[in-house]
Amino acid sequence: MNLIEWLENPAYSEFIPALTTLLKNAAWPEIEDAFYMHVMIGTGGIRGPLGIGPNRINSRTIGEAAQGLCFFINEYGQSAKSNGVVVGHEARRESRAFAELSCEIFAANGINSYLFNSMRSTPEISFAVRHLEATAGVQITASHNPRTDNGFKFYWSDGGQVVAPLDNQFMNLVNGVEKIDRLPLKTARERGFVQTVGEEVDREYIDNVRSVSVSQSRSAIIVFSPIHGAGSTNVTPVLREEQFNVTDVNTQKEPDETFPTAPGDLINPEYKEVMEQPVQLAEQIGADVAICSDPDADRIGVAAKKDLESNKLEILTGNQVGAALIHFILTERKRANRLPKNGLVLETLVTTNLISDIAKSFDVNVKSDLLVGFKFIAKTIGEMANKDDFIFAAEESLGYLTGNFVRDKDASIGALLTSEMVSSLKDDGKTVSQYLDELYEKYGYYKNAQLLIELPGKLGRQTMTEIMMNLRKNPPKNLGGLSIIGVKDLLGVANLSPESYSIGGSNDIISFELLDDSRSRITIRPSGTEPKLKIYIQRYEPVLASLQQTKRIIDDNVNNIIQDISSYLLEGLSLELMPSWNTSLKRII
After folding, report:
1. Are 244 and 273 in contact (CB under 8 A)?
2. 102, 121, 126, 143: which is the annotated catalytic residue?
3. Theoretical Cys-Cys bridge with 220: which of 21, 201, 423, 485, CB 3.0 to 4.6 Å?
4. pLDDT confidence tier of residue 42, bands split at 50, 70 and 90
5. What are the structural domains of the chain?
6. How far apart are CA 4 and CA 178, in angstroms?
7. Residue 213 annotated among the catalytic residues of the structure
8. pTM of the predicted model, to two decimals?
């Protein structure tokens, strides 16, 4: 149906040559995946592989998103249209063209826009929305997705992403788009619909980032890589203006839409392959820490020395960095008498509970059950009576935030605080690894691991659907030698039937509790933005004797849990979907 529409409808005429080539080459798997559905909205908006078809990112699907946003804004009246939309982009292929296309569509619908003069980070777009008092913001980005992808991420007037029911309303408007109106960019500029912004916003944003500093220590030697992305626009100037000793990874320093040094298509610093060049350079020069931002510079990967006497670095997980940072921030703010009376720390429900334990020990309030996606953190901050009470937020996928000027995770904030923490610890003769061991001794040992299973295409989607339905119909009784003592399913009864179930929604999460302390659990969810099934394992044990012995026992148990859950999921699959599972790429991070 979609294929016929794209072949026969004049609205899609620009795609006919490329589509004809696919048909002539009998590229049936690509055709099926590109046309069997429309690209969906997830926790970060619309994103996916570049290409032709409704299930790809191209000028049509970006145009539909922009036109749908116009309909969305129209419902708020003329003032909303006049206040306009901030538009930015990162370094990926077609990013500038898609940003300009969005402005042309906004202009044709009588909506003003502020277009950044070149590549910017995603958190700066969030900042600029409120700074410029705009109605909305759009960033052309696929965040940490593979370099083959791009997308359309939008913010509302509070600088945060929209959540239910507004996200569903937006998607319905996008799905209803038939005609896309455009006013040529040159004409739109001449008529005053498009205004260029740049350095004046940068200055305000960077000054705000620098204001969240909690320590004056600058002893750390730092290696930084933006991996050809937007980190050069926010992380680099912040660290340099804060007088840190920073060495760039020269081979990854310049923006490049092809990401030439990426290992395969990977540009997500959660993966050790992506961290390889920064880590190698750091070990070569004896740096204390290597930091790598993702392409749109809203998250950071961190590798730090395990021992000050050695140049060897170890890659830290997002959970480890988040736990170390919250203890460091609370310690420094308490020392400076800057802890608010009703302070609040936020984390998603798949992020380590060590963060919560630490915050509570400082008599700080915690909300640790937020749905996955930083938009739910932003929503919680926006609902606070006194937003100055917000202290820190973290999610396991390398996202960190403090301050009240950005409503999304921010690589420059994360890099600044991490660099200060590494410096302060170095001054005391410690590393982050040793710091974490001290925290484990005090609060108990947490082992957090994630099993990622990549299941692309239509068959992959069917596989994830069957897995999630099976888990709900026939949950496991025990995993890793531990009994399942409780099941938490956030989906809701109304969405459990095959007819009503839609995979990858924010509530499509099921969690199995292993022990009655609520700290040991397995949580499973399909990603809303990538063709991946994500399995989060958390095991906790108080340290009663030796920390190293506790680590060894719990780490082995987590490995057993991963093996058991993998076997269990495979056993429940129908015969026709087993090849999809067997050929899937599986990673533990």
Report:
1. no
2. 143
3. 423
4. low
5. 37-197 (3.40.120.10), 207-442 (3.40.120.10), 444-588 (3.30.310)
6. 15
7. no
8. 0.96
